[in-house]
Amino acid sequence: MPEIRVTPLGAGQDVGRSCILVSIAGKNVMLDCGMHMGFNDDRRFPDFSYITRSGRLTDFLDCVIISHFHLDHCGALPYFSEMVGYDGPIYMTHPTQAICPILLEDYRKIAVDKKGEANFFTSQMIKDCMKKVVAVHLHQTVQVDDELEIKAYYAGHVLGAAMFQIKVGSESVVYTGDYNMTPDRHLGAAWIDRCRPNLLITESTYATTIRDSKRCRERDFLKKVHEAVERGGKVLIPVFALGRAQELCILLETFWERMNLKAPIYFSTGLTEKANHYYKLFITWTNQKIRKTFVQRNMFEFKHIKAFDRAFADNPGPMVVFATPGMLHAGQSLQIFRKWAGNEKNMVIMPGYCVQGTVGHKILSGQRKLEMEGRQVLEVKMQVEYMSFSAHADAKGIMQLVGQVEPEGVLLVHGEAKKMEFLKQKIEQELRVSCYMPANGETVTLPTSPSIPVGISLGLLKREMAQGLLPDAKKPRLLHGTLIMKDSNFRLVSSEQALKELGLAEHQLRFTCRVHLHDPRKEQETALRVYSHLKSVLKDHCVQHLPDGSVTVESILIQAAAHSEDPGTKVLLVSWTYQDEELGSYLTSLLKKGLPQAPS
Amino acid sequence: MAAHLKKRVYEEFTKVVQQQQEEIATKKLRLTKPSKSAALHIDLCKATSPADALQYLLQFARKPVEAESVEGVVRILLEHYYKENDPSVRLKIASLLGLLSKTAGFSPDCIMDDAINILQNEKSHQVLAQLLDTLLAIGTKLPENQAIQMRLVDVACKHLTDTSHGVRNKCLQLLGNLGSLEKSVTKDGEGLAVRDVQKIIGDYFSDQDPRVRTAAIKAMLQLHERGLKLHQTIYNQACKLLSDDYEQVRSAAVQLIWVVSQLYPESIVPIPSSNEEIRLVDDAFGKICHMVSDGSWVVRVQAAKLLGSMEQVSSHFLEQTLDKKLMSDLRRKRTAHERAKELYSSGEFSTGRKWGDDAPKEEIDTGAVNLIESGACGAFVHGLEDEMYEVRIAAVEALCMLAQSSPSFAEKCLDFLVDMFNDEIEEVRLQSIHTMRKISNNITLREDQLDTVLAVLEDSSRDIREALHELLCCTNVSTKEGIHLALVELLKNLTKYPTDRDSIWKCLKFLGSRHPTLVLPLVPELLSTHPFFDTAEPDMDDPAYIAVLVLIFNAAKTCPTMPALFSDHTFRHYAYLRDSLSHLVPALRLPGRKLVSSAVSPSIMPHEDPSHQFLQQSLERVYSLQHLDPQGTQELLELTIRDLQRLGELQSELAGVADFSATYLRCQLLLIKALQEKLWNVAAPLYLKQSDLASAAAKQIMEETYKMEFMYSGVENKQVVIIHHMRLQAKALQLIVTARTTRGVDPLFGMCEKFLQEVDFFQRCFIADLPHLQDSFVDKLLDLMPRLMTSKPVEVVKILQTMLRQSTFLHLPLPEQIHKASATIIEPAGESDNPLRFTSGLVVALDVDATLEHVQDPQSTVKVQVLYPDGQAQMIHPKPADFRNPGPGRHRLITQVYLSHTAWTEPCQVEVRLLLAYNSSSRIPKSPWIEGGEVSPQVETSIEGTIPFSKSVKVYIMPKPARR
Predict the structure, then answer these.
(1) Stretch 293-332 of chain B: residues touching chain A, C-beta under 8 Å
(2) Distance in angstroms (rounded) separating the CA atoms of residues B64 and B103
(3) Domain count, chain A
(4) Quick one: B78 and B162 in the same domain?
(5) The organism sits in which domain of life (chain A) (predicted)?
(6) Domain containing A329: what range?
(7) What residues of A are annotated to the active site?
(8) Which of A229, A578, B395, B399 has the fewest Cβ atoms nearer than 10 Å?
(9) Which residue of B has its CA nearest to A257?
(10) Does the CB of B500 have a partner CB in chain A at under 8 Å?
């Protein structure tokens, strides 16, 4: 029995460390290869030894697919390919290929240089790993080998995020990665055609949330920044370098443009600048507005946003600064925060979630006095705002995507178990699609019924077409023919031709059946009664009474004979060929019911 | 004529008795025409290969064919068709047959038999499809003939089972265009069974080819458009098509569902998987709402657009579209809008939100949450944040239409519209502001909403700001703080963009007059008066101060207690402003002063306005006194023209009518004067010089008639007749003058013929109106037409002259609404002393900003003219996108004009003005042949002449020689 097997090594009922193994029609594919933010030990990477107890990964895996550049989707890649050892192809989109090494390098620096970890992958390993990458375009069908093909679809979420369709023969799986069904300021909404895969593996971060319109949040954000700038205050927006930062930049940039504002906006340098460069390049991956207007002006070539210098923080007058990192736990954003915290005119806007223990979390939960290192106490007078900008699909969006794709089954990953439970129930209830949510290491087996293409001879097709005139394309139609299996190809031909090809003579197969009728009259009369009865019942068949006393219905022969022992009972002999089985059996059942009482 | 010609084809075996006169006519036609069909025949016979034949046919198709010779051409084509083996040539012939049968004046029933005949023997699918197309053309040409229609429907049904999608498509199209349900036809339909066209088309909803499915739905829509009532059963079929794999099918299905929902809004349909039933229109609404989140944006646009026109939908369904039923972590959450509303109603202001402020409260029963089948839920929320701005615009438009019909919905959708003011695409922002303005009488803005609305005042786009001013003109504000806020923001706007001055003043005028009671408590603060101390007198020329005064004075008009709060200088300023800005400052009833303006206040205006009466009377006087002696007539005309012009200046609402009539009277006056000339009595050689006046008069009349025809909006057909009649008279005058002044007869021939053509054209165009023109010039002219046709030019001139003198003065009926087109150039202002410097030979862009009033179709008619000092004139066609439409009857042209010139030594002024281009031949209907053929559409865009309709503005420019 053919089947599809899916085993999450990470992201099964969990967020982070996305890594899913899929076996489809004998091909093994690994979807994403991420790390877990929450752990610093072995658990941070997926357990690759699960894949093959011993032996090389390359022999077992046909390909690896990376959906986008976030570290929880690609963070373990150099470890996997260089340290564990994998030499096969790694597929990702062009923007992901460009941005991924920057983030990996950054991650490596923090792990090795700051935390001093040994036995971590090196810069060279990142480079070597990236050499194994094959970049794909959107909607390009890539033939991994003779049978396995993959195709990327736009997913929103971040620049270059893609959903992948993995297809072998007629069996297919769609993996969404992270995606966003509502467009934002710089990216469009995810889109996929109705490809009806056997299985859809979807993320479910917001499985239990239906979100408010994005516009309110944007408006609030802009209004707050505008007000703060108007009264001469400084605004600090701590961000992570990629993704949301660009969205907020565009938002502010267009607002500044529209409102003719003059206050400077700064962006902390380094990683971000490099990333912005790629955003500028991959304009085709952005949304309609940016794509359409980039000929006049590339939206990522910011007019109002300039690079930040440490000294600018002390400049008088209003300004807006984007600084990394996003949770105010270290680095430039914290430095600036300390400088500005004392003034009530200033404002800090936290655009995302903050982990417990960080300064960001403390101020968001209302703490006004912060203890800094060296027993200093920092009094926070500046305004603290929280704005959530997130680029995952909400419950409605997930349902919408499932509806768009029309899969046979759905498998939820990248979400919390409790929330998945709810969504699973909803999907099964409302879309009537079976739904799975395996934990890490748990295998889901999905039986499939792959369709096998069969060639049909034109003559047969035309003959059958001619019989039914009504066009009902979507209904199955019964067709008589002979299936010939020869050298692993299948053909459907008419039986005559099959006989001819195989050099066989035709055998007639006839069924005969005796029906006892209680009828005291003579045989001829019985036959006549049978004839008139059938004639009245079978209006659209050709019923004939032959001179020798037998009755024919099409090719079915009915003869009446007297019973040898009981003259009061007549025996009807019904005989039909194999081809007329349907009509023949109907006739016998009809005759078994007896004849209607003749009008005597 | 066609029938007659048909007889001619079979002349050998029919005897036709014809009247002599007709014979002459046909002979005349035959002299020029038969060459066409003959040439074609020869060409086709010459053709050795199919490619050759195709070439000949293509060449032939470039030239139009007269209705009279169509029949012959068709015969030749058909003959060739039977012989032709190559399908591409047959295809071309089939398409030509279709084109030919569309020729005006040709009745194609005679070629139908042949067309059906060749259809039966045709094997090629493409040719079949083309032939069906031809039949469609024939069928649509003969909408009256039921038998033919039945026959064509029959043919279509027969070919519906064809294997090619193209043929099936065409068959369905044919059915859609010609199929009918009326049973009455059957009795004379001779054996043709009645077919239920809807059933047949409906069967093809499940065809295997998506193109055929689309065609089937389109055919169904076509049936509806032709007035056939669709069955309700189609609804279920159409609903199934909503989940089709192909976007064009879904898009068409959405339309069909909409149509059915409009036909049977009240019928009840069951909800699947439950026992409940709902109204069909509600069900359809839910389904279309669902399509707003379709995968294809084409479908989304279609769905969003149609939502707007479903007015019968129940209100709770409607309101669902704005509610996404938010939840977070399985707990119900309030939207930001709801929270804002609560904050507002609890009297608190948002002081910067705490983290988790929007934390969800109540737990939701997991079973009760419905994630997709919630139908209408949040359709507009989705539509408004769609990726494609086309969808967003469609959604905003739909919101607008629904809100106009339902005040409660208007109230609810306000928050969403306000949010759209922040969209990234300017078009969307503009559209939502306009929408808001349209529904503004249904709504009152809350303070927090007003805040967001006013934030847009700082937008750098002028269009947006002005649209917002318009919006503020007609908004209701609920509190005095709101008014204050609006004023403060508007003043901020004024300092940031001083060019918005006029628009802001106007906005404050309406704001004041709408909210007198809210302005009242603000007055002391606004005027910064103090109960005990005198404050400094503000600067009278400060635009911001004027803005405040405009607001207060307009409020004071309906609030008599307000002037008591004014200080002395305010009264002085009032007097000044009332004089200088009378359109913004109303007349006030001030204590201790007599009313400044006359007692006519608009509220006590009688419905028969005296000035209108005056206009009527003076016109009637003119029309009744037409038999006076010429001297008296002239004087009266002059007097009336003067009166009318003055009236137009005084009463702006009557300006259009007054000007229009005055122009007409002026034409008449000129005509009379010209005819009074002495020259008519003097012998020819002597008056060469004096004839200037008459020919100048003729020329001026022509100009004035063009102005009358094209510069006024609301001119109806009956006026156009009179105008054309006047023009005809001017042309006659011109002819006479030329005849008198030129020697020799040769040039006259051409002129006469041309004039007679004009008369003929006049007759053809206005044949319906001729009865109204009793006793007029043209009436008499047409009586004498046969004689004129045969006369010599000299005689013609003589006849014309007497007729022109005898003709009576036609009464010009006044149209209901008439407005003169006018334009004001706002920019360039023409006051600058600094020349615009640029390198000669290169171009410089000059921004032109103008408002146009009462111009119909400005995109094609308004041009910009630049006159250089050397007399060189340049006409510039602005792009259609440069025109905006801020209000009914008003347009705004914002464009860039590129100037270039060779070097000058001194800066010099160029003149910029706006022209109204016209083309009087645009009234002639185009023949289908030309549309279908490869003739370029130049004919339509050609300009016959232009009328300047704005004051010219002088711009100082200085092209410098290029430095080497």
Answers:
(1) 293, 295, 324-330
(2) 9
(3) 4
(4) yes
(5) Eukaryota
(6) 214-386
(7) 203
(8) A578
(9) B460
(10) no
